[in-house]
Amino acid sequence: MTGQRTKWGIVGGGVLGLELARQLAQSGDRVVVFEAGTEPGGLAATWPIAGTRWDKHYHVILPTDTRLISLIEELGIGDELIWRRSSTGLFADDTLYSVSSTKEFLALPSLRLVDKVRLGVTMLYASRINNWRRLERISAARWLSRWSGKNAYNNFWKPLLRSKLGDNAEQASAAFIWAIMKRLYRARTSGAKVEKLGFVRTGYARILDALLEAAMERDVAVMTDARVDRVVPDSEGGVEVVLSSSERHSFDKVVVTTPAPTAAGIIPDLTAAERTNLERIVYQGIVCTSLVLDRPLSDFYVTNITDDGFPFTGVIEMTTLVNPDTFGGKSLVYLPRYTTADDEAWEWSDAEVVERSVEALRRIYPHFEKADITEAKVSRVRHVLAVSVINHSASIPSIKTSVPNVAIVSSAQILHGTLNVDETLGVIANAIPVLRSMTTPAKEVIA
Ligand SMILES: Cc1cc2nc3c(=O)[nH]c(=O)nc-3n(C[C@H](O)[C@H](O)[C@H](O)COP(=O)(O)OP(=O)(O)OC[C@H]3O[C@@H](n4cnc5c(N)ncnc54)[C@H](O)[C@@H]3O)c2cc1C
Known about the structure:
Helices cover 32% and strands 24% of the residues. The chain has 12 helices and 21 strands.
């Protein structure tokens, strides 16, 4: 074999960094991934809980996540993918409702007949819109109130937006909710009659392990506990990655996959305009509590909350999908609180988060008692999702930067819509041709 092997450095060993590494290494290129954490996986990483290893943050797969399903099959674990029917709850006016079917939804007392008709019209209208540019100029709150009316906004759209964005919901553009509606519409028209959600039998740990193994088979090296401090051009036209331990590694090209503010911090040679752009992207964070319980809370996978005053933005009961035997017969419940940068919850200790959650859970599930909790863990991440605010597309970072051979590929490049692994894989698909077109210094020729 004769050819040029480009040497790539990738900053960030989340799903994006690992899969990008695997794809770049497919053609024989050499790839090294630097991950700051003690293990790869980022937001999809796992931790020990309920006597097993399970996702720090709840993850499910939609039937329409075609890129992700193909990847799972390619990794040889397609037969471990399990599909389950899921149901949805809504806590409104101090009552827990099932809203798993259109019929149940239409029976909600908080929505009048006129609201229901206007909601239907809004969804149909949104599904027909193809050009999101106009929608990006108006807030979701204004656009939805205009189309569905104030009552339907307050009792339907607002809790939905808050369950995805927390207090950042006020800043979201109409393009964000449009993208969600399009996705749901696609799911409905793809033939799925009931809402099915998928997961891999032993959780995301299995997907990450398989991804890591497949990357390593292609000679990708993954360094953990390797926090990157700086990415700077070297004197030979390449790029140097400097770790916080002061260790230095040289590459032909480097791709930074971290959240945008981190990218701005570690690439000192960016122009002022590039830096400002990366730093002004509005991120939402998360404080996510995992509770292991002696008994279930409900039959709902997701419960959205309309009422104010809750310390979390929704309730996710994983064991309505995953067999409780996986967790020694216990129930696994996540209580996500999507946060703004200045949310008071950043100051809460783990014990305080749990204490507040107990009180709030008792409001929704009167049978729940604090003694039901056998284990509690809290995860905090400041930069989870770039919020699709007004004119968001103008701040999407370009893949190539002004620094030669340094690129940014990250979830901040998801145009509109929610953060999910399928979208992440779409970001990679768009990036690969651009990365390959960056000029390669021919440092190494293998004969
Ligand atoms: C609560 C929650 C629920 C979710 N649910 C779903 C779901 O149901 N379905 C779904 O498909 N997706 C879901 N997601 C989204 C999914 O987890 C993400 O789309 C995906 O993990 C993003 O991967 P990433 O590699 O882009 O980012 P990240 O996972 O954030 O990876 C970035 C990596 O960079 C590393 N890093 C940062 N700074 C440095 C540095 N200086 N040096 C070296 N490394 C650094 C970080 O440690 C991290 O590992 C969920 C996410 C959350 C938080």
